[in-house]
Automatic annotation (TrEMBL):
It comes from Devosia limi DSM 17137. This is Ribosomal protein S18 acetylase RimI. The keyword Ribonucleoprotein applies. One of its GO terms (cellular component) is ribosome. GO terms for molecular function: acyltransferase activity, transferring groups other than amino-acyl groups. Keywords: Ribonucleoprotein, Ribosomal protein. Pfam families: Acetyltransf_1 (PF00583). Residues 21-159 form the N-acetyltransferase domain.
Length: 162
């Protein structure tokens, strides 16, 4: 699934006025950079396999500043026919600077007019707060995916309230 190779440039991220943040579809040349960026991939071969699949499916969107990857997101349409943010990862040294919110905003713009869902573990307060900040609303939970850590589902409406 591709959105026509969209590139979006933001001039201001978290108070950094001259920062150019670009979004593009990841390609196989980005695989190593994304694996290094992903805090889970170093210890988990299955995550590295997933990153390769997401790239090959055209579902992986990379955020970069001056050619350096700051984060990535995976957008699929496998959740009951609706768009679903399957993964959002910001590199450790880029966290807390607005890159995650910028990635979410980019995905929201790409899905304008369509339902958009995401989920995160109950233990992941940072992601929950990020989703709420971006205007997502709690939509339920799923038990038994991870032991003693329910998956919270969030929803962003096709046409958000003004």
């Amino acid at each position: 699934m591709r959105f026509g190779g969209v590139v979006r440039v933001l001039r201001s991220v978290s108070g950094l006025p001259s920062l150019d943040l670009r979004f593009r579809h990841a390609n196989p040349d980005d695989f190593v950079a994304l694996c290094l960026l992903d805090t889970f991939a170093a210890e988990h071969p299955k995550r590295r396999e997933a990153i390769a699949i997401w790239i090959n499916e055209g579902a992986c969107i990379i955020a970069e500043v001056n050619g350096e990857a700051t984060g990535y997101a995976v957008l699929t349409k496998h959740f009951f026919g609706a768009f679903f943010i399957e993964m959002l990862m910001v590199g450790n040294r880029f966290r807390g600077r607005g890159f995650g919110l910028a990635l979410l905003r980019h995905l929201q713009a790409q899905c304008a007019g369509s339902k958009l869902f995401s989920s995160t573990n109950m233990s992941n307060r940072t992601m929950q707060n990020l989703l709420l900040k971006a205007g997502f609303k709690p939509s339920g939970y799923i038990d038994n995916l991870d032991v003693n850590d329910p998956e919270l589902v969030f929803f962003y409406p096709a046409y958000p309230d003004p």
